Amino acid sequence: MCVSISQVSRFRIHSFGSSCCERVHGWIKNSSSLKLLDVRAFSVDGKARWIRRNVSTTTQGSRGNTKSSVLGGTVPLTRIIDEESRTKVQRFGNLQQRLAQDKDLPKLLTVIVSDLETTGLHRKNERIIEIAAQDLAGGGYSTFQTLVNPGDVPVTNTDIHGIRTDMVCRPEVPRMEELIPIFLRYVESRQKPGGYVMLVAHNGKSFDFRFLINEFNRCSYEIPHNWLLLDSLPLGREHMKSLDPTVKPKASLKVLQEHYSLTREGDPHRALSDVLLLSKVFQKLTIDLKLSLSDLVLRCQTASDISAAMAKNKKA
């Protein structure tokens, strides 16, 4: 089955604050005219159709006008970076430490904010039913969103996100095994040559990343070895605790939205809406916590780190 992604909508991104640009996004040109293209594989109302079309991206910032095909070429099964790159990671030690010390880090790292929705909360038995992502560098085709067909697994938590079983259990909605190569191509199209990807998710360590790892494994794929996974929830808790050390900090996305007086685009607990909000929150947190790009890298985990923790919890 050959599927492609179609551009259906546009969004406008807020300009990055100068201090945030200096610390975390120094390689991005500060601009109030950056536009985000919502790249959807399937729309919420069920009216969108899959079309056979190659999509190219035009990125901004230090990457200039670099075009690459979102779906061009093939994604090798369980091989995202070559064996030589994997050997270098093993030979020279902790990837996060090496990357954090690299003076060319801004030229190597792409920061992508992500979110997903699921049929339920049990990662072993439930399935992903929606994925969204946004490259903080902006530019053409910098956002990604799609519903996902969970197969014979019913949606049991519609009250949380509003997604019903009949919305996703349709032949035209891609299954996870069909979607993974498309999602990998999206990330690859945003990645800098020879670079790395920092995937950010709120409560990612306990939820999003574990679901993603399980789904990749179930479909016989591996999370790319040049991906770093950052949970933004601890950042939120750290900031909120600094405001009042006597109170146990609450740092849900809603709490942080209200704290920063931010507006939300779309409904709560929908993947794209949460991604657009988290992109704003994440930048605010990096400013308030005075975090450099190297600081963020050192707070990341790899898929191997999380997989090891999952295996340890399983044995306990």
Shape: globular
The total beta strand count reads 9
Strand content: 15-25%
User: Are there runs of 5+ residues with pLDDT below 50, and where?
Assistant: 1-82, 87-92
Helical segment tally?
13
The N- to C-terminal Cα distance equals 41 Å
Radius of gyration (Å): 19 Å
Helical amount among residues, as a percent range? 25-40%
Mean pLDDT: 78
Enumerate the strands of the largest sheet in spatial order, edge to edge or round the barrel.
1-2-7-6-5-8-9
Reading the helices and strands in chain order gives EHEEEHHHEEEHHHEHEHHHHH
Q: Return the structural class.
A: alpha/beta
The main pleated sheet reads as:
7 strands, mixed
Structure in words:
With 316 residues, the protein is α/β, with parallel strands linked by helices. It has 13 helices and 9 strands. Strands 1-2-7-6-5-8-9 form a 7-stranded mixed β-sheet, sandwiched between helices. It has a two-stranded antiparallel ribbon with strand order 3-4. Helix 8 packs across helix 13 (303-315). The chain is globular, with a radius of gyration of 19 Å. The chain starts with 5 loop residues before the first strand and ends with a helix. The relative contact order is 0.16. The model is unreliable at 1-82 and 87-92 (pLDDT under 50).
What would the keywords be for this entry?
316 residues; 13 helices; seven-stranded mixed beta sheet; globular; alpha/beta
